[in-house]
């Protein structure tokens, strides 16, 4: 039956409501229990007034004789106003701490980076170099690390001095990076699988990037066991701690001590809740298996882009272009993994979130830029090595998932025997509390 306005009326079914609710949870998460209304009101008119006044100030008061300065100021203001629009128009994503505006800005930055990559792809090599030299004139004198350093030399010489010399800032970055990755992935099986497959990735792409060559003891002991393994253990320990916590947030208005208010303000930068993650279980479909494999391939591709970008576009690992990109990719990975996990495991979620979509586009555009401007390098590619790499990743992924299924079956048996000790809240199917029994844990809360 048509309505009076010419639109077809339709009853919204239960499935439509569930779909919209589940997609909104990962793409437009709402803030619950707002205590300070001022920080969560739009303030759109105030923001518009401030932006227009600031634009007028910079437009009429600054010196315009320096052409490079004009370009820099114009570029910075364009980026700034785009981020302002991001705060007003873009979705929150799956997170709301410390404030949804932060994650809108993060999404806006990822869109800007995506557009920048699209722009770069349609330039020629000389134009790309001119852009880089305009950003940093010192890049004219940059050299590839592979051209001035030797790798995997005298591997049979193993001394304490040589081993200790490898514990530098890069070793710490490996350790800390894997701690952060474990916080995002929250699975021992997937973390160890990605760690091992990355070392295989280095072996298969060593013919293209000489800095992937490492001594066996460096690769197995220092990288996989100590740095990566230690980081995974640290990250998963934090995950287990956060999973066991009970999250009851008090309003800062209800706290009457200065110390308590400061502590509550600091806790605003911690998660509002913690989701228990289970990437795979015995009843998982082939689609989820394929999704986990694709997840690992994109993860390896993103890591490869880090090394190919600095090798092809010639900038050192310590340069701002390198570490700023790594930091930025790490930040946008957090909402990306959350949205991809929801898409993979939640049958009510029919499409990926916006941040996940943009992240995937960024990964492939970076790879496309590397291929376009590194044709001379990729002409040396051994296709057999690449095919073997894909097969090895698939095989290791299958073994990992098989191990996770085996563990899940044992875990479910043990979990079933303990269900008498759990009491679930009637009003929330996602929160359970462990009741005290002799010889058991006294109190434990799990946010599912």
Automatic annotation (TrEMBL):
Keywords: Endoplasmic reticulum, Lipid biosynthesis, Lipid metabolism, Membrane, Phospholipid biosynthesis, Phospholipid metabolism, Transferase, Transmembrane, Transmembrane helix. Catalyzes a base-exchange reaction in which the polar head group of phosphatidylethanolamine (PE) is replaced by L-serine. Pathway: Phospholipid metabolism; phosphatidylserine biosynthesis; Lipid metabolism. The lineage of its organism: Eukaryota, Metazoa, Chordata, Craniata, Vertebrata. This is Phosphatidylserine synthase. It is found in: Endoplasmic reticulum membrane. It is an enzyme of class 2 (transferase). GO terms for biological process: phosphatidylserine biosynthetic process. It holds the Pfam family PSS. GO terms for cellular component: endoplasmic reticulum membrane. InterPro entries: PSS. One of its GO terms (molecular function) is L-serine-phosphatidylethanolamine phosphatidyltransferase activity. Its main location: endoplasmic reticulum. The gene is PTDSS1. The chain crosses the membrane at residues 43-60, 72-90, 102-125, 183-200, 220-242, 312-332, 352-371, 383-408. It comes from the Eukaryota. Its EC number is 2.7.8.29. Belongs to the phosphatidyl serine synthase family. It catalyses: a 1,2-diacyl-sn-glycero-3-phosphoethanolamine + L-serine = a 1,2-diacyl-sn-glycero-3-phospho-L-serine + ethanolamine. It comes from Oncorhynchus kisutch (Coho salmon). It is a multi-pass membrane protein.
